[in-house]
Amino acid sequence: QVQLVESGGGLVQPGGSLRLSCVASGFTFSRYHMNWFRQAPGKEMEWISKINNNGDTDYADSVKGRFIISRDNRENTLYLQMDSLKPEDTALYFCAIANRPDRGQGTQVTVSS
To answer: Shortest CA distance to 94 belongs to which of 7, 19, 1?
Structure first.
């Protein structure tokens, strides 16, 4: 079955960087568009980035210029490089297959001094 496993979260100071990973299995990863979402406590789920199966990318305005989404189809892995992190980036980050309900358990990112 479809499995998405995120990792790479943690505690980082404002201005710092983290790289999130999402290892996919149970489907042909290279064929699918993939998304990153996040959810902060008490807030709705927020879409933050997408990468199509052809490598085209898109970003929410809140992360544009600071985050970079990428994928390695040989390793069935989705990445999110996060730079210039802000306290408002604190959230649980999820990867998901586009237009499908499948998503991982998430990895926590906390930006605090």
So the answer is: 7
